[in-house]
Structures are given as C-alpha cells and as structure tokens.
Amino acid sequence: MREEGSLTDAGNNGQGEFEPEITAFTCIYCGYMAADTAGALRLKYPPNVKLVRMPCTGKVDVRYILQAFEQGADGVYIVACPIGNCHHIHGNERAVARVKYTKRLLDEVGVGGDRLEILFASGGMGATFAESAHAMVERVKQIGPNPLKLAPGAG
Predict the structure, then answer these.
(1) Which of 9, 84, 85, 114 lies in the 20 to 30 Å Cα band around 56?
(2) Model-level pTM?
(3) Residue 58 burial by CB count (10 A; 0-12/13-18/19+): exposed, middle or buried?
(4) Number of domains, the chain
(5) CATH number for the domain that contains residue 137
(6) Cα torsion for 38, 44, 45, 51, to the nearest 10°?
C-alpha cells in the first residue's frame, strides 16, 4: 500500500505525467548570479529546479552529487564559471573532472550518467541559465524517474 506523496508518487503532477526533480549546484559567483539575472529579467525556468549555492563548483564533491540522487533528484547539473574565468582559479576544472568521474559511477550502478551535466555561464547569462534549466528538465523527462525512487525499500 502506497501513501499519498510517497517516493513512488514523487514527480507526478496528479495526472500521471512525470515532472522530474532537478538539483542545480551553483557557485556563488557566476552560477548563482546567472540564476539571479534570469529572475531579474523575469525569465521563467521550471520551479522543480532546486538551487544549491556552493562557494565554488570545485567544492561540489562526488558525494554531494550522489547524495542528491539518493535523496530523490531525478537529475543534477552544475552551473560553473566559464573555463578560464573561475574566481578560484581552477575550481570549475575540478568540477569537470568530478562530473566525468561521477557520470561513470552513475552508469555503473544503473542510475545513468545522462542524468548529470555541467554547464558554464557568466553572471550576466540569465537567458542561458533559464534555457539550460528547461533543457535539463526535458532531458530528464525523456530518461524517466530516478531508479532509486522506484527501488524497493527506497527512502
């Protein structure tokens, strides 16, 4: 017997259509500023994209990404400063390496590396941020729900 609002019901809009939960890790500089710019310009992006502010995307550890999936995210993406323009010199390059490694892990455990992405945006790129949020939601809709949500004993 399932309770209303259980993990297996999560992401549905009441009509059976899958609405993915997306976690977006952003740096406090370019990534978050791009999201803020999108808001200031009144550019809409999906409300199911939850922002997690980090001091730098170089601080986004593999463990944080995996925990996002374990806690119910259907997709995760990182919004980093453009390559060569990181406020912490090489933080975004470390993030790229961690995303590459984590994609392999996700493929190996059956979650799917396609659920994870990294993009680069400067603070003034609000439109790029909003478009990327829409694209990630559509991408994960095509992939389907996080298999960890559907696993017996999940949660």
Answers:
(1) 114
(2) 0.84
(3) buried
(4) 1
(5) 3.40.50
(6) 50
